[in-house]
Amino acid sequence: MATLTFQIDQPTVQAGGVLSGSFVLRTTQQIAASSVEIYFRGKEYTYIEKGSGKNKKELRNKIEVTYHDLGSHLATQRIVGGGYINPGAYEFPFEIILQDSLPPSMWVYSDDDYAKVEYCLRAKFKGSGVFADYEARRVINMLAKPSLERAVPRLVDPFVRRVNYLAAWEMGELCIGARVLDTELMPGQPAEVILGLRNDSEASPQKVKLKLQEIVNWTVGSEKSSKTRTLAKTELVLKNQQKPLDKQTRLELKANKHERREQNQRDIMNELQEAKPTEALRLPIPQLTTSGFKSANIEVSHQLVVKVMTESMITNPEFYVPIRILAGGATPTRSASPPVAQATAVVEESLPLADAVPIRDESVRQYPDFGVAAVPIPSKKD
């Protein structure tokens, strides 16, 4: 009987980094093997269901992108020296340099539709089993490449929103503007918003709601599906609450509404420019947020929703700010070398596999026929 397992150095890896570890073969009997294959592949799935009952139609799309295929490039080699493996335990270390452009692992549902990206590491000894070859699989959690930290602020120009009671009776208008301190954020960092507000209505703005939303769009041919979900939200009391106007004052201001709007917009712009970062409303980005990306059939994006809460049954104005969620991790370094297009592995001078020493021998034996260095595991008896 033989077993094959993976030992991974990193439970989570990042694009542009290194995936390293080893796969371990333990066998109590001599087994035949013509070659060994090692694969690291990414797969992108999209599924959309249309109709119901007899009219139900299932649309599937599966793109198997061979981001790294060691079986094709390095590790499918003919085993020399007889093509068999003696009883014992053997460890085969490997090291794979990952491409910068790999999308992160993800999975999202919308009713019966879904989209996902997943990665799998696989090793197989060809010709080693009676009915099926001995093999091992390991799902790898992938994060996008860490991004260079930089502040990308955004100014939301002041705009006017009418305020109505029960969506029918006019109560005046609010002038709202905002300054987002940074629109490119990593998980764990806070989204910070400085809000500017002028109240020319009979309503009383009391609180502000902040929400971070994730929007996932995917396709199968010409069909489309999407899912919007809230990842984080908070509710904050306005520090400088502005009192509502009485009806007479509101009507007097309405007579010169164009001049009033221009004045409010100028005041808000000045206020936003002079405001200190400590005055910002804050919403932390969850640590497990998937970074934004766009692949062949899947697109993940994010937005910040800012909603001004007034009284019950009165209009609550809101606006949206696109947010780019970056991959976390160490800040990458710039390199003049071209990106790595294929996986690499450690290859050293070797002895044929048939000459492998028994498990009790602690000396190192290396087998480049597998595209990696193999180290026999010492017995527990030693």
TrEMBL record:
GO terms for biological process: protein transport. Residues 182-326 form the Arrestin C-terminal-like domain. InterPro entries: Arrestin-like_C, Arrestin-like_N, Arrestin_C-like, Arrestin_domain-protein, Ig_E-set. Residues 6-133 form the Arrestin-like N-terminal domain. It comes from the Eukaryota. SUPFAM superfamilies: E set domains. GO terms for cellular component: cytoplasm. This is Arrestin domain containing. It comes from Seminavis robusta.
